[in-house]
Every structure is written in structure tokens, then in C-alpha cells.
Specification:
The chain is mainly α. It has one domain. It is built from twelve helices and no strands. The chain is elongated and about 65 Å long. The mean pLDDT is about 95.
């Protein structure tokens, strides 16, 4: 496709950043745009695998703690999320539950998004659940006087991943240095390495899990070479 046709589809405004990054080389600008899409797809796959793993680990912990129907039970009259400090979490579960045609715990589990699981590490939800969710990270570092690897730390790391996930979902580029038009894969790799680290904290072999799916590093190398 000729550049002007490509630009007409994608819009001059969207392509302007890619032109700046490639010194107005239209062929390289199109290549960079396509490589950015590839990188976004790869990262979304990695994040999706992480989200499912996180969700399942949390489910294992709370199922052993509260029973295998813990999500629905958590919003009952005696449920641990039935309190003022967790009202938003309760409403999210209630809405998801009402939207299910045929209820099952796995269906309700799968209907809740990354943001929901992240907020289980916010202080009200973490305390309501008995302060046990750090158990899903058996290999996390021991806290020091400089860094506390507590629920707040985990919440912050999950927030970083969630924001990056939303960036991809809204078709924002991930191939630039933050706030510039300089091609740089470091921004993306920071998030990628954070996810791999959290997999390791959960004692999940991330290399085996992502085998054949993960080409993030090679695409980053290609982007940096444009």
C-alpha cells in the first residue's frame, strides 16, 4: 500500500508521530506502525495469560478459605464483601452475577476483569478477605526497611500492568519513549519484565507457559533497529 493510502486509513494525526520517529521516511513509518501493532498483540497475549493466572491463583486461595462458591457468597448478607468499605466490589460482583444466563462459579469468575482482581489488593478488600492474598506469591522478596513487599506494593504493580493493558486496548502506541516521538522499546520492556517477575513470584514457569506465544523481545529488537 502506498503511504498516502495508508495514512488516509489511519489518519495523518495518528501517523505524524511515526513520521517524526523515522525522519519523514514514509516506508519506515509504515513499518514502525505495523511493528507497533505486532508488539501490542504480543504484549496483550502475555498480559492475558498473566491475568488468567492471577485470577486462578486468587480463586484457589479464596476457594480453600471460603468455599468453592466464594464469589457469590461474598456478597450475601454475611459475606465478607458485604460492608460499606467494599460496596463497589460488591456491586461489581452483583452486576456480573445478574448478567449471567446460567450461573456457575467459573462463569462468574471469568466475567470479572483485570481491574476487579487488582482491587482485591486494595486495603479494604484485602483486609475483608482476611489478609491472605499475598500467599499466591510464595516467592516474592522479603520486605526490608527500604521496600515493603506488601499488598499495597502488589496493588501498585498490578495497577501499572492494568494501565498498560488499557493503553493497548485503546490503540495507543507502545513503541515510543514515554511522552516523545523517539522509538524506544524500553517502556514496553519494563512492563514485560514486571509481568515475568510476578509470574516468578507465583512460582509459575513463565518460559514454559508462554512457549510459542512470546516474541516480545525479538519484535522490540526489530523496532529499535528501524
Amino acid at each position: 500500500m502506498k503511504y498516502l493510502d495508508f495514512e488516509e486509513v489511519m489518519s495523518p494525526e495518528r501517523m505524524s508521530r511515526y513520521l517524526v520517529a523515522t525522519n519523514d521516511n514514509t516506508k519506515k513509518a509504515m513499518t514502525l506502525y505495523r511493528k507497533n501493532l505486532q508488539l501490542s498483540q504480543e504484549m496483550f497475549t502475555v498480559i492475558s495469560c498473566f491475568e488468567v493466572a492471577l485470577r486462578n491463583k486468587i480463586n484457589e486461595q479464596y476457594s480453600s478459605q471460603f468455599g468453592t462458591d466464594w464469589l457469590r457468597e461474598s456478597i450475601s448478607q454475611t459475606g465478607f464483601f458485604n460492608k460499606t468499605t467494599c460496596i463497589r466490589t460488591k456491586k461489581i460482583i452483583e452486576r456480573a452475577y445478574k448478567n449471567l444466563v446460567n450461573y456457575s462459579h467459573p462463569k462468574l469468575l471469568a466475567s470479572l476483569d483485570f481491574g476487579f482482581w487488582r482491587y482485591l489488593y486494595a486495603q479494604p478488600q484485602f483486609y475483608a478477605g482476611g489478609q491472605t492474598l499475598l500467599k499466591i506469591f510464595p516467592s516474592k522478596p522479603t520486605s526490608t526497611s527500604q521496600i515493603q513487599y506488601n499488598h499495597t506494593y502488589v496493588f501498585t504493580q498490578l495497577e501499572i500492568i492494568n494501565e498498560f493493558r488499557n493503553r493497548i486496548a485503546h490503540h495507543e502506541p507502545v513503541c515510543f519513549r514515554r511522552g516523545t516521538s523517539i522509538t524506544d522499546s524500553a517502556f514496553c520492556l519494563q512492563h514485560y519484565n514486571l509481568i515475568l517477575q510476578l509470574f516468578q513470584w507465583m512460582n509459575i514457569n513463565e518460559s514454559a507457559l508462554l512457549y510459542g506465544l512470546d516474541h516480545v523481545q525479538s519484535i522490540c529488537n526489530e523496532i529499535d533497529g528501524i
